[in-house]
Amino acid sequence: MNIRLQHFLFSFIFLFLLFPNCFAQRYAIDTLQYQGTDQKVVNLVILGDGYTQAQLLDFEEDAKRFTDYFFQTEPFRQYSNYFNVFAIKTPSLECGAVHACTASDCVHGNTDLSQYPTRFNKFTKKYPVPIASPNTIFGSSFDNGGLHRLVVPQKYQVIEQVLKEHIPNYTQVVILVNSPFYGGSGGKYATATVNFMSNDIAVHEIGHSFSILADEYWAGNQYAIEGPNRSQESDPTKVPWKHWVGTQGVGVYSYGGSGSKSTWFRPHEFCKMQYLVAPFCAVCQEVFVETIHHKTNPIVATFPVASKSVDAGSMSVFSLKLLKPSPNTLDVKWYLNNHLIDQNIDSIYLNIGMLELGVNQLKAIVKDTTSLVRNDSHQQHVYETVWSINNKMDRALAMPLSNWGDTLETCYNGGQVLSVKNASRGLTYNWYSEHQLTVPFATGSNVSVNDINKSTVYFVESVWKDKKSTKNKVLVKVFDKVEKPKGAKVRFDKKLNKIRVTLNEKIDDRYNYLWCNENGTSLYEWDEFNGEYVSPKGNNNELLLNKSNSNSKIYVVKVNKTTTCRSEKLEILISKF
Q1: What sequence ranges are listed for the domain Ig-like (predicted)?
Q2: Cα 529 from Cα 398, distance rounded (Å)
Q3: What are 176-227's pLDDT values in tens digits?
Q4: Residue of 409, 417, 418 whose CA lies nearest to 461
Q5: Residue 344 half-sphere exposure, CB side, CA atoms within 13 Å?
């Protein structure tokens, strides 16, 4: 090796040891759920430990399985729209987890792994874990804190580096350890093996990591601290969960009958923070919802951007992009200059005449009204967006426009819907049948008029406080009346063994006919060849009926093919043949 190459390699090794971050490796990321932004949402990151390069497909399956299970669990199901989920494919040199079997509760011995499927394993915590010390990326190991099941990643610096290089604004991390034996831990990172109970373990551990929930089983004095679901207070009117006591099984329950655990209390007897197979109790669900709101903002975007002043002459729609629970429990209120103009919609239009001279304030206030939360502190979780609208002159109310222009059409004696295009929230729309009238026949941005038998002009105006716009007009044009058929001839066709009904009208290609029985069920011709009822062919001014239709009434309606307007029904009595 020449001296120059030797010097280069020495320099490279020196720099790597001194500045290892300069040579950080990039890993592939699977985006399992994305809300269109990584801001103002919970960024849930899944890492894999003990998966070799050849096992990364297993990691993909495990991460997807966990994600599906996570969003089937309440309250995460209702708040799934508040989460992004990313899975970083972090390979290890060797598979598995470190296991020294040093904990007092470790079951010594070996388990024949060949008798079980490679994935979807059936291992429970009673099976012995083989002694092993694989080289894995995060160094996850059993036997921590004197507990065999306590599986903890040891290489925290590596975890932090991977997160910094890939998802620096992570909110919650879940580490899936590629070991089939039961184990996991909470702490900074929720950790779980891929044991058959791994999904429940991971969700339970998220209770610790994400919302600082306590175990509702007794884990030891070292974990005995006050929390939202654990307290030394026994008075039901004073415990942290007092607002839930007496509902959904919530009460005050002792951890044990004697010793130090007897002085501590929990809110429920069947909660996932005690039993993996249980759902989260109401108290824990409330804490999760509170945590989600502390870490997110349901208003993820606004249009136009709220931080920029809006010129009145160029304003259009104002809208919110919201993270909505399912079912949606968000209450949205819109205020113009502190005047409530509408609620529970995501976007609004403003009529320029509603603005005052100078700077106007349009505010949207969003609050989650979920029944999962009873704590009064939730009232603090109110989110708002404010737009400043600069109006340099006094302006008249803009005249309302019809959705369909100044002319609509309808059938004789038919109805029509009169609607305002881009209706401004907070305005009143008055409708008149004559221009000079002062009392409207209807009010609203969408009104119905019925039984119109002649072309009629309607007028509409906008009203805001003491201001009225110029009236706009809408013509409703009435099509020509479709006269009902004049009559029908009913006879028995011996050749076909059918009843033949023929209308007393000349065939006219402008019209078609609809036939029905007394209860309104449509009547069709019976096609003997194909053995089915078919629509009458041609202008269908004639109908063939089976003899079973004798002694009944049928009806026919004449239809204009172009306008689809209909005549009144003609009743036809079918005599007995």
Answers
A1: 409-477
A2: 65
A3: 999 999 899 988 899 999 988 889 999 999 999 999 999 999 988 888 899 9
A4: 418
A5: 4
pLDDT tens-digit map of 359-373: 999 999 999 999 999
Give, in degrees to the nearest 5, the angle at Cα 440 between 457 and 442: 85
Cα dihedral sign, 121-122-123-127 = negative
8 A C-beta contact, residue 512 and residue 561: yes
Sign of the four-CA dihedral 209, 211, 214, 217? negative
Residue among 129, 122, 126 at smallest CA distance from 98? 129
Residue 289, classified by CB atoms within 10 Å of its CB into exposed (0-12), middle (13-18) or buried (19+), is: buried
| Dist. CA 462–CA 431, nearest whole Å | 9
**Which two three-digit tokens encode residue 152?**
């903890």
pTM (two decimals): 0.81
Residue 416 phi/psi, 5-degree rounding, is -150, 155
- The upper half-sphere exposure of residue 73, i.e. CA atoms within 13 Å in the direction of its Cβ, equals 26
H-assigned helices in 304-397? none
End-to-end CA distance of the chain: 114
Over residues 105-141, the pLDDT tens digits come to: 888 888 877 777 777 677 776 778 889 999 999 999 9
Tokens in use for 476? Answer: 């409703």
The helix/strand/coil state of 478 is: strand
Query: Taking Cα atoms as reference points, which of 320, 428, 329 lies closest to residue 364?
Result: 320
CA 62/CA 193 separation, integer angstroms: 10
Q: Are 448 and 416 in contact (CB under 8 A)?
A: yes
Q: Which domains does the chain have, with CATH numbers?
A: 23-211 (3.40.390.10), 221-294 (no CATH), 297-391 (2.60.40), 407-478 (2.60.40), 488-574 (2.60.40)
- CA 546/CA 325 separation, integer angstroms: 57
Angle at 260 between CA 254 and CA 265, to 5 degrees: 25
Q: Is 438 exposed, middle or buried (0-12, 13-18, 19+ CB in 10 A)?
A: exposed
CB 41 within 8 A of CB 296: yes
Residue 168: C-alpha distances to residues 86, 157, 161, 321, 518 (Å): 12, 14, 9, 24, 71
Q: Is the dihedral of CA 49, 55, 60, 61 positive or negative?
A: negative
Classified as helix, coil or strand, 514 is: strand
